[in-house]
Amino acid sequence: MAYKTTYDPAKLPSPDRITHLAPNQIFVFGSNLQGAHGGGAAKVAYDYFGAVWGQGVGLQGQTYAIPTMQGPVSTIKPYVDEFTDFARQHPELEFLVTRIGCGIAGFKDAEIAPLFEAAGALDNVRLPKSFLDILQ
Q1: Could you report the per-residue pLDDT of 92-106, keeping only the tens digit for each?
Q2: Measured by CB atoms within 10 angstroms of the end CB, which terminus of the chain is less buried, N or C?
Q3: How confident is the model at residue 17 (pLDDT cuts 50, 70, 90)?
Q4: Strand runs (DSSP E) across the chain, as ranges?
Q5: What is the pTM of this model?
Q6: Distance CA 50, CA 45 (A)
Q7: Quick one: which of 16, 99, 31, 26 has its CA closest to 67?
């Protein structure tokens, strides 16, 4: 099966503020490898959408954690690639990606957005507007 590698400019970005999820939606957030979800989007994921304390990677409740606190951007890429493969294997789910790595982790959108190029081309992944603006 061939996968798209370019964006559909008509696709809606993920909401700036996610306060509720439909049953098939997954909140994608930046985490740390220890799974200490104490601030930013990680805290929202933990408080409202089922993120598991102590689990810093992958699917948990209606969330998907991507570690961003362990080093430079190059250390984030394998986790984004793993997420992209997961999203590709689960077309029944819609993934709402937050501005991972651009809050507490301190990266700029221009550093993180390119990591999501393949993920953003999937029909079931919605990226933040700031990432889409950089990628288009």
Answers
A1: 999 999 999 999 999
A2: N
A3: confident
A4: 25-31, 58-60, 63-67, 94-97, 125-126
A5: 0.91
A6: 6
A7: 31
